[in-house]
Design a protein that fits this description.
By secondary structure, the protein is α+β, with helices and mostly antiparallel strands. It folds into 3 domains: about 5-115, PAS domain (Beta-Lactamase); about 115-190; about 190-345, 2-Layer Sandwich (Heat Shock Protein 90), CATH 3.30.565.10. The protein contains 11 helices and 12 strands. The chain has helices spanning about 5-10, 35-40, 45, 50-55, 60-75, 115-150, 160-185, 200-210, 235-250, 280-285, 300-310, and strands at about 15-25, 25-30, 80-85, 90-100, 105-115, 195, 215-220, 225-230, 255-260, 265-270, 315-320, 325-330. The strands form 3 sheets. Strands 2-1-5-4-3 form a 5-stranded antiparallel sheet. A 5-stranded mixed sheet has the order 7-9-10-12-11. Strands 6-8 form a two-stranded antiparallel sheet. β1 (about 15-25) and β2 form a beta hairpin. The model is unreliable at about 340-345 (pLDDT under 50).
Length: about 350
């Protein structure tokens, strides 16, 4: 295939493509196609000659990106699902790194296919199936065992067995309602985002929580403005975190809600004095463990919060320090027009 044909394919392909030269294991950008400019928000003049990783790789994924670059330098093909910073926040891509040599130097074509919505829908289905199946099995046992004893006249305490049946059925009903809420809230792949100032939401959520939990200590620290590109669901996500902190906090819960702006992002943190999120939940919701590691005790509230935040191109982050648990929401800030904040070189 001639250079002219290759160049035309490079320019017209729908996927974001960047041509890099691997210099001391650093992917130095030599060319980008129009789709890359549209998706990642950097024009050619800004990014050519710079390290690709410095612009699009989140700090927490720098080590993994370096392993890809070393493989490319050794002439090895790369393929993986990766998270990358884009013009609209963090999104998921199927990444393919195709190495080649040019004038004695190591090069690679990095091809990024956006799979964000596809993976999110797959995860929705897997989580709902796993949680519902395990909970149904567990709770049905709690119902059938005492019900069988009552039916056969072998129950020593009918009232206690009836209470067990009622409690299990009530939990099933609550789970069914929660699953329905998830489907309703996350049922559409398209999100119409507008400028939302989180200050008013934080004020309302904290005030209503103080009313509902009079004995709890709930503090709020926020600036005068925290604009993000979102919709009504961002309030659901934040409220879930505050309610979770109050439910799992100390004997008399102490919760701190903080809103800040950091490096072009709005960060909302919810900190409590409870024992922390169990490892078997944390490793799946916040980590890389497979959904199959979920057990029947895992609820849907944290998953719903994560999916809402990720639909805006944001991140949900967990940390545990000094006997306190912090869950943070990170969202791209916006300018006055409701678009993600300008980045240098953006068209």
């Amino acid at each position: 295939m001639s250079d002219d044909r290759f160049g035309r394919l490079f320019e017209l392909i729908d996927d974001a493509v960047v041509d890099v030269e691997i210099v001391d294991n650093v992917p130095v950008v030599r060319a980008v196609n129009p789709a890359f400019v549209d998706v990642f928000g950097y024009d050619r003049e800004t990014i050519v000659g710079e390290s690709l990783n410095d612009f699009i790789v989140p700090d927490t994924l720098a080590r993994r990106a370096l392993s890809f670059d070393r493989r490319s330098a050794d002439g090895e093909y790369n393929e993986a699902t990766v998270a990358r910073e884009t013009a609209t926040g963090i999104r998921q891509f199927q990444y393919r790194g195709v190495p080649y040599e040019h004038d004695g130097a190591s090069h690679a074509l990095a091809i990024y296919t956006d799979v964000t919505e596809q993976r999110r829908r797959e995860q929705h289905h897997r989580v709902l199936h796993r949680v519902l199946r395990h909970t149904l099995r567990n709770k049905l046992t709690s119902i059938l065992s005492p019900a069988t004893a009552i039916r056969k006249g072998r129950s020593d305490d009918v009232a206690a067995d009836a209470e067990r049946i009622y409690a299990a059925a009530t939990e099933l009903e609550a789970l069914s309602d929660a699953a329905g809420e998830v489907e309703q809230i996350m049922g559409t792949a398209h999100v119409d985002r507008e400028r939302v100032d989180l200050v008013g939401l934080l004020d309302d959520i904290v005030e209503s929580s103080r009313t509902a939990e009079a004995e709890a200590k709930i503090e709020l620290d926020r600036p005068s403005s925290l604009p993000v590109a979102a919709d009504y669901r961002v309030g659901i996500a934040i409220r879930n975190l505050v309610e979770n902190a109050l439910e799992h906090g100390g004997e008399t819960p102490s919760v701190a809600v903080t809103g800040t702006r950091v490096d072009g992002e709005v960060v909302v943190t919810v900190t409590d004095d409870g024992p922390g999120i169990p490892e078997h939940v944390r490793s799946v919701v916040f980590g890389d463990s497979d959904v199959t590691q979920l057990d029947h005790g895992t609820g849907l509230g944290l998953w719903l919060t994560r999916w809402i935040i990720e639909s805006y191109g944001g991140l949900l982050v967990y940390s545990r320090r000094g006997g306190e648990t912090t869950v943070s929401i990170r969202l791209p800030t916006v300018d006055g027009g409701g678009e993600p904040g300008d980045r240098e070189g953006r068209k």
